Automatic annotation (TrEMBL):
This is DUF2567 domain-containing protein. Signal peptide: none annotated. Residues 8-17, 36-48 have a biased composition (Low complexity). The chain crosses the membrane at residues 55-76, 105-125, 132-152. Residues 1-48, 227-258 are annotated as: Disordered. It comes from Micromonospora costi. Keywords: Membrane, Transmembrane, Transmembrane helix.
Amino acid sequence: MPGPAVPGPGSAVPEGGLADPRFGPATAPPSAGVDAAQMGAPPAPGAGRRAWTRAVGAGLALAVLGVPLGLLWAAVAPDTPVVKTPDGAVYGLPQPEQPIAADGWFSLLGLGFGVLAGLALWFVLRRQRGPVGLVSAVLGAFAAAVVAWQAGRRIGLGTFDRLLVTAPDGQAFTKPADLRAGGIDWLLGVLPVPHGNLLLPAFGAAVTYTLLAGWSRWPSLRPEPMPDAGLSWASEATPAPTAAPEPPAPGAAEPPRG
């Protein structure tokens, strides 16, 4: 009895890489969403420069987001009541709680911003995951904290400075929110040294990004192609159907019956 027909060199394979049971298993094609670097191909010329360009752009975008963060801080942080004296403005209460509340609000908002920044850059810079993405997240979050601090503290600062000069002694008014538990000190007058809760956004971004990298299931931190499973339409337990016998040629002797 003749065996099953074997496809020739030009025979087509069904779409999707799944073979006909008569022809044996076929290798599934690689995923279309896998880039050349993940398939082992050499990186394209200038890939490192483009990676750093994207990282710098993402960091600058985070820094710009510091403006709405500062406006939000100025909106929720309470102003501090002060009284004009010959020596300047002094607190209107012996132990005011408003400066502590301003620091607390900045800490909470900054830490949340850092966590969201780490998450965003992990998913946006998928091909730059690793040291490049971590540096971009940390520096971008720190720049956003500085921008938020300067933008928030200037809301109402002009009015406060004007009253500080023109108001009579004994008049009460308010001072806009500012940081007491954080800021920038100058070492030797030339080197800026940030400290306090101004570093919390960068800390939140660093911790979030590091945890995502540590729990990633891919050693390269990038999505990798799934191994070929060798699937076919027929199960291994199901025998392949035999081919139907070919009709006898014209003039051939009929086989004996019985």
